[in-house]
Amino acid sequence: MTLSWNGKRFDWVNVVYFAWIHAMALLAPWTFTWTGFGALLLLWWLSGSLGIGVTYHRYLTHRGYKMPKPLEYLGTVCGMLASEGGAITWVAMHRLHHAQSDRPGKDLHTPKDGFWWSHIGWILCDLKMDRRQMESRYAPELVADPVHRVLNRAHVFPNILVGLALYAWGGWPLAIWGVFLRLVLVLHTTWFVNSATHTWGYRTYETPEGSRNLWWVGLLAWGEGWQRPRLVGAGRELAGHPRAIGPGPRAGGPAPAEERRAVPHRRGGRGLGIPRRGDPRVLGVDQLLAGHEQRLLGVDGHDVHGRSPAAGRV
Asked: Is 314 part of a structural domain of the chain?
C-alpha cells in the first residue's frame, strides 16, 4: 500500500529531512544558553526577514524595489538559510501560486485542499511537476542568471556551513538553537502565511482569492501576515494586488496574449533547458502576470470564475 496525501505520494527524502529537523529541535530545552538564544534571533532575522521576506518574496518574486546585484545575491544566500529551497524554485512556485491562487487542485498550497495540506502536506509530497519547465515559465529572468542557477543548486550548503561553525564555536547548544530550532520557527511562520492567512483574519476588500491579514502571523513572519493593504488605489488597481508579480508600465491591465506564453526550453547548458540571457523570450517580470486581471488569470487562460479575458474585465 502506497502512502499518499491528497492523491500525492510522499516524498520520503523531504519527510525524513523535516522530521529530523523537528526531532533535533526538541532538544532545545536541555541545551539552552543565552548565546544560543542570541544566535537563534540573529539567524531568524537574517533568514526569515532579510532572506525570505525582503529578498525571495518582495524583491525576487514581486520586484517591489531595485537592488544592486551584490546585495541581491547576498540576500539570496540569507534566504537559502531558511531551508525553503533555492530562489529560482521558490520564486517560480510563488508566482504559480498567485496565478492559481486558492483554486482547488491548481494552487500548490490552498487551504481549500485542506488546512494541513496548505501548511506542510504539499512540502512532504511529490507534486509530480516538471520543475524545469515551471522555473523557465515563471522565473525566466532568474533561470537566465548563471549566479542564481549555481545558488539554486547549492541551497543546502549555507545551513551546513553555519551549523558546523556554530558547533565549532559552542557545541550542540549553539547548533541546536541556531540551526534546528531556528529552522522550525522560520519554516512554520512561512507555512502559516500559506495556511493561516488564507483561513483566518480580516479582508479590507473582496477578491476571488482568499488572502487575509492576520496579526499574529504578521508578527512572527516579519510582516508577511499582512497580505492585504488598507487602501484601494485609483481606478481599477487595488493597492498591492495589481502588481502581484512585478511592477511595470502595464500594471493597470493585462499583458498581450503573446507575452503570456511559456518560455520555450533551450537545449544546452547540460540539457537543462536554460534560456539564454538577453533572449527576447526571457520575459520581464512585469510581462508575466501584470495587472490585477493577470493575477486572477490561471495558466489555462481563464479567470477564477471560469471566464476567458474576452468575456469582460474582472
From this structure: no
Strands 4-5 and 8-9: antiparallel
pLDDT in tens, 243-289: 333 333 333 333 333 333 333 333 334 333 444 444 444 444 555 54
Give 194-203's long-range contacts (Cβ < 8 A, gap of 24+). 194/109, 194/118, 194/119, 195/109, 195/111, 195/115, 195/116, 195/118, 195/119, 196/119, 196/225, 197/225, 197/227, 198/102, 198/110, 198/111, 198/118, 199/111, 199/115, 201/225, 203/228
The count of domains in the chain is: 1
Question: Is position 312 within any domain?
Answer: no
d(C-alpha 87, C-alpha 60), whole Å: 8
User: Would residue 310 count as lying in a domain?
Assistant: no
Find out whether 101 and 189 touch, Cβ atoms under 8 Å.
no
| Residue 28, domain extent | 4-305
Q: Which residue has the cell 515563471?
A: 138
Contact 76, 148 (CB under 8 A): yes
Residue 165 forms part of a structural domain: yes
Q: Chain centroid to CA 279: how far?
A: 25
